[in-house]
Amino acid sequence: MKNIVFMMDIDLEGKGDNDNRYHSKRRLPYQYSIASWRQWCEKHNCELFVLNDLIYPNTEMPICFQRHYIFDLMEANNIEYNQILSVDADTIVHPDCPNFFEMTDNKYTVVQIDGSWDWVMRSIENYSNHLFNGFKMPWDQYFDSGFWIVNKTHKDFAKSMTDFYWENKEKLQQQNKEKWINMKKDFTPKHYTSCENNGRHKRDCRYNWKKRGVIDNYDDNYNTLYDYYLSINNCEECNCELNTNHKTRKCLDHDHETGLFRKVICHSCNNML
């Protein structure tokens, strides 16, 4: 089976802002990118797959999130594959670039970012405050979403990205409107989803609860408690909807004398107890 290089070359026919990478005026140079990757694929016996059509209207789902249907696209086109590189169309590959598919050990492979740290830190902070309940992913593990290699073992992760979008669509649109986040980019939610899939969120919760002296009522290393914590959507004290706002963000309430867990409540109620 061949390895696949996947790119998106979508023409929005001049619709949208001029700074949109898929605006007709901006995408003309992308043909040089596609040509460079086509040459590289021929050299290394890979197949180039260029997506020219939207899966959903851009107003319904931003283009960057649509690329996470990458496995569905392969199956819909009856393409057998080993690994897939998803790469942005504003890249030029060097003709002597080695075959990186041979360097992945069949793992999720990315390029660590090394620049634009002001944007990275603001993005981490805003997604943390508005969508991920105050959890902050490690900034030093931030990677560039313009180059990532996957295989069939990563289907669930790709689905978690599209699920994240549909489950948070209205919230993403509102935060984008208020300029807190840029929903045209999937960089930061991909990192947060990666952390959650790798168990980092659970490890951080477990560490913080232990540090605060919370007793694990179920005596299973906080696993049952963590699952219960995630399942609660309304404050168990005042019944308000738990979300990412400061006053209504989710908190774990415990007895400060015995350490025993009591309930999952909002930050306002936690301050009053």
Characterization of the model:
With 273 residues, this protein is α/β, with parallel strands linked by helices. It folds into two domains: 4-198, Spore Coat Polysaccharide Biosynthesis Protein SpsA, Chain A (Alpha-Beta Complex), CATH 3.90.550; 212-272, no CATH class. 38% of the residues lie in helices and 14% in strands. A five-stranded mixed β-sheet has the order 2-1-3-5-4, sandwiched between helices. β6 (250-254) and β7 (261-266) form a beta hairpin. α6 (155-167) crosses α8 (187-197).
Broad CATH class of the largest domain: Alpha Beta
Overall pLDDT, averaged?
A: 84
* Separation, N- and C-terminal Cα atoms: 61 Å
Give the overall silhouette. Answer: elongated
In helices, the fraction of residues equals 25-40%
User: How would a textbook summarize the main sheet?
Assistant: 5 strands, mixed
Give me the Rg, rounded: 22 Å
Low-pLDDT sequence parts: none
H/E element order:
EHHEHHEEHEHHHHHEEH
- Name given to the CATH architecture of the largest domain: Alpha-Beta Complex
What is the number of domains? 2
Give me the CATH fold name of the largest domain: Spore Coat Polysaccharide Biosynthesis Protein SpsA, Chain A
Strand order of the largest sheet: 2-1-3-5-4
Report the β-strand fraction as a percent range. Answer: 5-15%
Q: Count of DSSP helices? A: 11
Determine the structural class based on helices, strands and strand pairing: alpha/beta
The overall strand count is 7
Strand-helix topology:
Layout lengths: L3 E5 L15 H4 L2 H14 L3 E5 L11 H4 L3 H7 L6 E5 L21 E4 L4 H14 L12 E9 L3 H13 L1 H9 L9 H11 L2 H12 L11 H9 L18 E5 L6 E6 H6 L1
Parallel strand pairs: 1-2, 1-3
Antiparallel strand pairs: 3-5, 4-5, 6-7
Helix pairs in contact: 6-8
